[in-house]
User: Fold this.
Amino acid sequence: MSGPLLRARGLTKMFGARTGCVDVDLDLHESEVLAIVGESGSGKSTLLGLLSTQLEKTAGSLTYRRKDGVAVDLSSLSEMERRLLLRTEWGFVQQDARMGLRMNVSAGGNVGERLMAVGWRNYAAIRTESQDWLARVEIAADRMDDMPGAFSGGMRQRLQIARNMVTRPRLVFMDEPTGGLDVSVQARLLDLLRSLVAEGGLSVILVTHDLAVARLLSHRIAVMRQGRIVELGLADQVLEDPQHSYTQLLVSSVLQA
Amino acid sequence: MSDFPSYNFAYLDEQTKRMIRRSILKAIATPGYQVPFASREMPMPYGWGTGGVQVTAAILGRDDVLKVIDQGADDTTNAVSIRKFFEKTSGVRTTTSTPEASIIQTRHRIPEAPLREGQVLVYQVPIPEPLRFLEPRETETRRMHALEDYGVMHVKLYEDISRHGHIATSYAYPVKVAGRYVMDPSPTPKFDNPKMNDCPALQLFGAGREKRIYAVPPYTSVISLDFEDHPFERTKFDNVCALCGSTNTFLDEVVMNDEGARMYVCSDTDYCEQHRGDRKETGA
Assistant:
């Protein structure tokens, strides 16, 4: 338990002359949920892409402390090591479940894929483990062999979470996981995410434009504007006593139901 | 040759053959790896064996004896026309006998008679990429091969078992070559997969439309992918060949009449004929 799980310093991404995000310093600790909020185009998704090594950074440094305690410079990993990390210690939940799932493979196969990718070769064991995770995200056992196309939006999103959680990752990136879901489905999904985080040692970096989701799930909030983090602090503190003028605007813009 | 004096030996010009041979050598050096090559237009449509024909043309010498089979048979359209093609353009001796041939071009079967050292088996391949079912992007499949990222291959087998209760893939059954590359053994029935393992003959695969050549050198391990609790199983037949009485060969089902009467015969016509001869001799 020494040092942060993920540490970014001066992280910058340029798209030609345009800025994606600039000079981001960020620490994520074990068992912590960090929300990145901001309006559309503020660089949230770019930052998430950089942190999850799906985008190549223009400048800055990014280190990750592995399960064995060794802090590695993520840009020094070989492609093979990076992929192994992505499917063992990390997870990525996409906003559009169709991007994160194999739509031509059954629900059970979707969940089992990561297990097979790390060397599981016993069909019965893979199936039991998949079924276990499907149950935990409240997908009935008799839907296991159905295609994700036959699932509702909320079910697909839960399936995507099971697919990521099956190898018990330490760090999960989420890009608007509740986007496009109606409020009651959204509430159940949030419940599920909270219980997964509460259960055991999971760290999450969550991108959302929904401040209510950020408040419910996260310990800390980073507010982004024009590619920079303008405010970073404890969730309640940022939402109840915003310091930066942009955060004040953002918080005061929330509609009350 | 006299009919077509303007053609080079075995149709292709020497520069093209050299290009193909370079790809073949590279393929042999990296068993199971798909080597790109500049596939030429051939005087036959894609899907009729343009890849296999180019490989055969590149390795054919004047002393070679060529056999061509289509689904095991020497006498079907594809086999006859390719055999005639090489008779005309190269003048080499052709045969239907497996032991006699030095080069065997095949569409979707491996002969029943065991192959020996010095023989070359040339496969016609429609889709060389075993990962295509799960990953449509060529850039990504090539990266997956490079990184040995083969987890998805088992997803396909998993889907089979979850849907059918057993691995229902019965042809183009994926194999791992020399412990490294996952390879599509072309649409040969999985019945033939065990014959590829540790085979004394050289096996070359040509995909004309997809412009890929790959190879399994002699005595190379070719292992069919499976699960611990659902191991690879060779297709078994409940019938015997109606013509030669073989019990251990790959059988074709032939519908005999409008009432649906069926007959099972060896798909390997040469083996079947030899076997019938044996039976007559021993019976007489």
Notes: DSSP finds seven helices and twelve strands in chain B. Chain B has a mean pLDDT of 92. The longest strand of chain B covers residues 65-70. Residues 83 and 177 of chain B are 30 Å apart (CA to CA).
